[in-house]
Structure formats: C-alpha cells, structure tokens
Design a protein that fits this description.
Structural class: alpha+beta
Radius of gyration: 29 Å
Largest sheet: 8 strands, antiparallel, barrel
Shape: globular
Helix content: 25-40%
C-alpha cells in the first residue's frame, strides 16, 4: 500500500511541527528554569554577610554595653553581655545578610531586643528596646567594624 503525496506531506509537516514544538519547549526551559534558581539566590542573600563573633562594645544612647558573642555556621548568636555591674545572657540572636538581632536577658530584669544592620562603614548600628517595657528604647552602634 502506497501513501499518497498529500499524506506524506501532511506527515512530514506534522513531524516538523512536532520537532519544532519539542525544540521550542527546550528553548523555553532556561526561562522556566530561572524561577527555580531564585530560592538559592534568596538563600545566598540571607546567608550571614559578616561574622559578629568576638568581644566588642555597643555604644547605646543611654549606656555602654560589652558583648561577647559566638556565631555558628548558620548565623545563630550565643554569648553574654555586661554593662557596669550588670550582666546579661544572649537568649537568641542571628546574623542574616547584613542584619543582626539578639535578645539579652539582663540579670536585673529587663530583656533587651537589639536589631541593627551593617552600614557602608562596616559598623553595626540600630535600635534596642526593653521587651518588658517597650517605651524604653535607645539607638546603638558598634565600636568596631565587621
């Protein structure tokens, strides 16, 4: 049984359309792949951009605080603080990208939440407030660069 010329042309055209549609799908794959690469880009942006470990001073608008921090590979912070005869323990904290936060439980009662970011001068600065008395607030900056 022989195919007619018209049937062969139709099959050839259909095959060519199928090949182009498959190739076209392949050509659009990189554009479709871009969103799947976004989560890793977001993860990279969220990774710690600096290491806050060490002993350094926070100059607050109402006090001077010595911090002694350790930072793990995930950016989590651990450590202690002191201001005069008052001492505190870092209950939680982390570095994410250029941002830092940590919560200090002071031995005399207040619980301070410090938030800040790394500036162009490579110093940290931000605000703090007493979580038990949120109207008690101060600004702060680090003595050293990171």
């Amino acid at each position: 049984m022989s195919m007619s010329r018209r049937t062969r042309k139709l099959l050839t055209t259909s095959a060519a359309a199928l090949i182009l549609s498959v190739a076209g799908a392949g050509l659009t794959a990189p554009a479709n792949a871009a969103p799947t690469s976004t989560p890793s880009a977001v993860r990279e942006a969220r990774a710690a951009a600096f290491n806050a470990s060490g002993v350094w001073t926070v100059y607050q608008s109402n006090a001077t605080v010595r911090v002694d921090l350790r930072q793990d590979g995930s950016g989590n912070l651990y450590g202690s603080t002191s201001s005069g005869n008052t001492v505190g323990t870092v209950q939680e904290g982390s570095v994410t990208g250029n941002d830092i936060y940590f919560v200090v439980q002071w031995n005399h009662g207040p619980k301070g939440r410090y938030t800040g970011s790394l500036g162009p001068d490579r110093r940290l600065s931000g605000t703090t407030y007493d979580m038990n008395n949120p109207s008690s607030q101060a600004t702060w900056r680090s003595d050293r660069t990171f």
